[in-house]
Write a structure and sequence with these properties.
10-stranded mixed β-sheet, 2 domains, 37% helix, two-stranded antiparallel sheet, 389 residues, Rossmann fold, alpha/beta
């Protein structure tokens, strides 16, 4: 592992263009690189998004862009009725290993859609990525339903959670990580988002996955990270966030800052971005946001404010149907009505209609794809079998 003090500096990052920087981690043929060369009036908007995306990345502290991910370690392979579950250890950041779950449906398309599932906070520091399999009281598990839809799903432990919880008191561990990173010129949330970005790299590189159909889904902390990731990474074709599309100014007015963990706070963010401006970087890609009217973490006035800001932009690009921001009569919970919408959007934007009628066996062999050929350039050079961490 490279030492933390060899991370690229913020000054270096800001001096480079966003496209050039991100392209170091993502193949040149990716959506990000394609957006780098505007060809029309519409692409002017995309070019402006790239500039703002560069600014947003620049607020996230010193990030290890120079680190090239090493081989993936296969810890265990579990056989389930509807899917195979691989327990992996990923080398995403060069600082600490990242335990992950990869769910591979037994029945899926030849090139299956990929979904990055991002776990919540909830003060449940031991849970982490296992939320995909176990769910929580206010949000049922997604593993089985994603398998039935033929989605290849990746979930990682975030910094300070799951197998990356390094102190007995998880809350204290999160605060200590936040403080230590500040001393080093890093931002905890920035390192979290970097890991999710690199996790998307790995998901897109898998031979089972169609890199043109990638989505992100999360609740609470996972919700915030989902819409941030969609803003930072144009490869995300569908963003689905549950119970945390929080307008920062409305949160301040509601005296709600204490409701969010310390990870949530990015230095100087409000000098450059409001929530609406981050979410504007997702336009015109598909975005579903479901929230609770009685959720103190997400003041409803802010949800309505964001919807009213974003909808005209989607309408301008003829994509009004690709944005849906809803409020439900609940607190911080995923209602069945919310789940119904999420599954509908998975079908519409990730799952091909013909697959629902005629699924293909997962054992079918296929020709190499661009994603497969790029695995070496990404640094994910297959798997190494071994024991635990």
């Amino acid at each position: 592992m490279r030492p933390a003090n060899r991370l690229s500096t913020r000054r270096d990052f800001l001096q480079a263009s966003a496209v050039a920087t991100i392209s170091a981690a993502v193949p040149a043929s990716s959506a990000i690189a394609q957006l780098a060369l505007p060809q029309s009036a519409e692409d002017t908007f995309l070019a402006q998004q790239n500039e703002r995306r560069k600014q947003l990345w620049g607020l996230l502290g010193d990030l290890p862009w120079e680190h090239k991910p090493g081989p993936v370690k296969l810890v265990n392979r579990e056989e389930h009725e509807q899917y195979v579950l691989e327990r992996l250890v990923l080398d995403l950041n060069g600082v600490e290993p990242v335990p992950a779950l990869l769910l591979i449906p037994r029945k899926r398309q030849a090139r299956a859609p990929g979904l990055l599932y991002i776990h919540w906070h909830g003060g449940m520091y031991d849970l982490g990525k296992e939320m995909l399999l176990k769910g929580v009281e206010v949000a049922p598990a997604y593993a089985d339903v994603c398998a039935r839809k033929g989605l290849v799903v990746l979930a990682i432990d975030s910094w300070c959670f799951g197998e990356r919880k390094h102190e007995k008191n998880g809350h204290q561990g999160e605060e200590n990580a936040f403080k230590l990173m500040l001393w080093k010129g890093q931002v905890l949330y920035g390192m979290m988002m970097f890991d999710e970005f690199r996790a998307m790299d790995y998901l897109a590189s898998r031979p089972e996955v169609d890199e043109e159909r990638l989505g992100a889904l999360g609740m609470s902390m996972g919700s915030t990270k989902a819409w941030w990731l969609a803003a930072l990474d144009p490869r995300v074709k569908l963003c689905m966030d549950v119970c945390c599309l929080t307008d920062y100014e409305e949160l301040i007015k509601a005296h709600g800052l204490q409701g969010h963990g310390i990870y949530y706070y990015v230095p100087s963010l409000l000098k450059h971005f409001q929530t609406s401006e981050i979410n504007e970087l997702i336009v015109p890609r598909a975005h579903l946001s479901v929230n609770g009217k009685r959720d103190e973490l997400t003041p409803p006035a802010g949800v309505e404010k964001l919807r009213d800001y974003l909808l005209p932009l989607y309408r301008k690009y003829g994509k009004e149907v690709d944005l849906r921001v809803e409020l439900f009569d609940c607190a911080h919970a995923e209602l069945p009505e919310m789940r119904k919408l999420i599954l509908e959007w998975m079908d519409r934007y990730l799952v091909a209609t013909q697959f629902q009628k005629n699924p293909q066996p997962a054992t079918q062999t296929h020709a190499a794809t661009p994603a497969m050929r790029r695995r070496a350039s990404l640094g994910f050079r297959g798997t190494i079998k071994g024991g635990g961490l």
